[in-house]
Amino acid sequence: MRYVAGIDENGDAIDVVDPMNDKYRHIYKNYNNPSDQVRELMQLKDIFGDDLHKNHKCLTEILAAYTRLINNGARESVRMLKFGGE
């Protein structure tokens, strides 16, 4: 999800090479809130199927991980997962 946003953690553009890139760009252009972005991305049936977006626990976990990446970057997020902590 971080990659398909098209911006890396330093704010630099990422050239997203994916056949669904138009859908990703639409989502990130129209939804600024990470919660909304995750919700919309999870509704992409070609990736997540028809019902995964209805699983509240799954959505909560994915949103937490995505938010951690946005707030802390990849390296720190991995450290937090490995050693614990928020």
SSE string, helices as H and strands as E: HHHH
Question: What's the shape?
Answer: globular
- The helix content is 55-70%
| Main beta-sheet strand count, sense and barrel state | none
Compute the number of structural domains: 1
Helix/strand-derived class? mainly alpha
CA gyration radius, whole angstroms: 13 Å
Mean pLDDT: 94
The overall strand count is 0
Given as residue ranges, the uncertain stretches (5+ residues, pLDDT < 50) are none
Count of helical stretches: 4
Percentage of β-strand residues? under 5%
Query: What gap, in angstroms, lies between the N and C termini?
Result: 20 Å
Quick overview of this protein structure:
Residues 1-69 form the Mannitol dehydrogenase C-terminal domain. Helix content is 59%, strand content 0%.
Topology:
Elements: H1 21-30, H2 34-42, H3 45-48, H4 56-83
Please tell me about this protein's structure.
The protein has 86 residues and is mostly helical. The chain has one domain. The protein is built from four helices and no strands. It is globular and about 35 Å long.
Task: Give a quick set of tags describing it.
mainly alpha; 86 residues; 0% strand
